[in-house]
Amino acid sequence: MNPNEIKNFHLIAVCGTGMASLAGLLKQAGHKVQGSDANIYPPMSTLLSDLSIPVMPGYKAENITTDIDIAVIGNAVSKNNEEVLAVQQKDVRYLSFPETLSQFFLEGKKSLVVTGTHGKTTTTSLLAWTLYHAGRDPGFMVGGWLKNFDSNHRFGAGEHFAVEGDEYDTAFFDKGPKFLHYQPHSAILTGIEFDHADIFSSLDQIKDAFLKFIDILDPDGFLLVAHGDPNIKDVTGKVPCDMESYGFSSSADWVIADYQWDSGAGRFRLLHKGKKVGEFSLPMTGRQNALNSAAVAALCLRLGLSAQEIAAAYAEFAGIKRRQEVVGVENGITVIDDFAHHPTAIKLTLAGIKEAFPDGRLWAVFEPRSATSRRNVFQETLPASFAPADRVVIAELFATEKVPENERLDPFALIDSIKAMGQEPSKEASKEAWYIPGVESIIDHLSGECQPGDVVLIMSSGGFDGIHQRLLQRLKKGTTP
User: Is 173's pLDDT higher than 90?
Assistant: First the structure.
């Protein structure tokens, strides 16, 4: 079938973040798009509605009509899904989400892929915004919601397409990582740790995925890697293109120097092999975001942007929803939302928030929701992640029935370990921590214990039953001590 003749797409499991973004891209490219899903809820349902993309509730064979040119099958559905069976029975051409993105949006582009265990969304978002602000008209697809665009995708006419490279599996008929479809010209690798315990059995298996990704980099491209990551060293023995490192260490190729948080921005000088290339200021807190922005600056300089163009874009970066997002302040108590769910991300996020709010008590409220955080694979390492916090609340595990009992995280043991850990640097005998099942009970506890000046950082990879706004409404009533 000639790609120019393909007009009608049907997306199965369209309300996933990536699938909804793809639906938006297809609509912007002039195609007719519809979809179906078992769970239709904001924010993706709102995005699809605003784009006038019809979504049919449930999976039904009659949704697969003869005028469909391509069915795009998301990785949330199995081979026994009713619509999947209908697609096969009616001999409708089908593709995975990554295959569709690659064939219809990455062909003929310089694909810029940001991958790694942490920081993908922020780094990809900043890259897309910087290229756009400099007039390069990029396309992009990101796993978060960019405030500058009020969207998570864009169909651009420029030569670059920035995409968040996910190592998660592609579809029931393709168990390889998504990012192997993304035709990477150049890439940023932020770090490698164990994650996605539902599909990877070991760190070595994850490294193997990254080895395959690096192997398909364009020889004319460029690879930027986080300096000092031992797992990255294990996968970069044979890189087909130029490779350089970035970090705070003076032995990195791109060095972050004189970092400081000042007047609501993280400021630093960037050196390349000892020579200053620019000064940058990003309105996002934490050393991790300095690393993310240094990587983007280095890549953009390689792509021909000037340091001045990059700095100007950074100054106007509005951030991403659910990434250190201040959702409100009531009675002098600041409530922040973040997506952190891996021990490393939790610790880095807490440290960044403590940097921005050094005077108030920092409350860490964590919902073990992701497939990995609900498991006991991080039982021993998770407690230390909460070291920067002054108070810790652990919520009940999300959907415990999906994790075998002998593999589940033990929240009681986690709380005991956090309490025994002590609080740095004051060396108190114990840290205050609670396990509180039920969102309403958590809100009761916080509204009764928080004081003006406190900061409540709520971390979850899901919606957490709307706890953020519900807490703010309670605090607004003035029930704090």
Answer: yes
Contact 451, 479 (CB under 8 A): no
Structural domain harbouring 360: 325-476
Q: Copy the structure tokens of residue 101.
A: 């993105």
Dump pLDDT digits (tens) for 26-51. Answer: 999 999 999 999 887 777 788 898 89
Read off the pLDDT of residues 88-108 as tens digits, 9 standing for 90 and up: 999 999 999 999 999 999 999
What tokens does 410 get?
Answer: 């033990």
| DSSP assignment of 153-217 | EE---SSEEEEE---SEEETTEEEEGGGGS-EEEEEE-------TTT-SSHHHHHHHHHHHHHTS
Same structural domain, 158 and 23: no
The partner residues of 113 in beta bridges, in order of sequence, read 163, 187
Q: Would the pLDDT of 76 be above 60?
A: yes
Whether residue 151 sits in one domain with residue 90: no
Put the strands of the sheet holding 275-282 in their side by side order: 151-154, 139-146, 160-164, 110-115, 184-189, 222-226, 242-247, 254-262, 265-272, 275-282
Q: What is the C-alpha separation between 199 and 206, in angstroms, rounded?
A: 10
Q: Do 288 and 142 lie in a common domain?
A: yes
- Say how far apart CA 77 and CA 38 lie, in whole Å: 10
Phi, psi of 9 (to 5 degrees): -120, 140
Q: Tokens representing 125? A: 């978002």
- Cβ–Cβ under 8 Å, residues 364 and 459: yes
- Listed in order, strand segments (DSSP E) in 8-164 are 8-12, 32-37, 55-57, 70-73, 93-96, 110-115, 139-146, 151-154, 160-164
Under 8 Å CB-to-CB from 315, ≥6 apart: which residues?
281, 283
pTM, two decimals, is: 0.87
The tokens of 209 are what?
Answer: 């995925």
- 382-422 pLDDT, tens digit per residue, is 999 999 999 999 999 988 888 888 889 999 999 999 998 75
- DSSP, collapsed to helix, strand or coil, labels residue 280 as strand
| DSSP per-residue codes, 292-350 | HHHHHHHHHHHTT--HHHHHHHHHT---BTTSSEEEEEETTEEEEEE---SHHHHHHHH
Instruction: Tell me whether residue 49 is in a domain.
Output: yes
Q: What are phi and psi of 286, to 5 degrees?
A: 100, 145
pLDDT at 481 over 60: no
DSSP 220-271: TSEEEEETT-HHHHTT-SS-SSEEEEEESSTTSSEEEEEEEEETTEEEEEEE
d(CA 442, CA 471): 9
For the chain, the first-to-last Cα distance in angstroms comes to 68
Is 102 part of a structural domain of the chain?
Answer: no
- The pLDDT tens digits for 113-149 are 999 988 899 999 999 999 999 999 999 999 888 999 9
**Measured between alpha carbons, how far is 403 from 368 in angstroms, rounded to an integer?**
12
In a domain, 481, yes or no: no
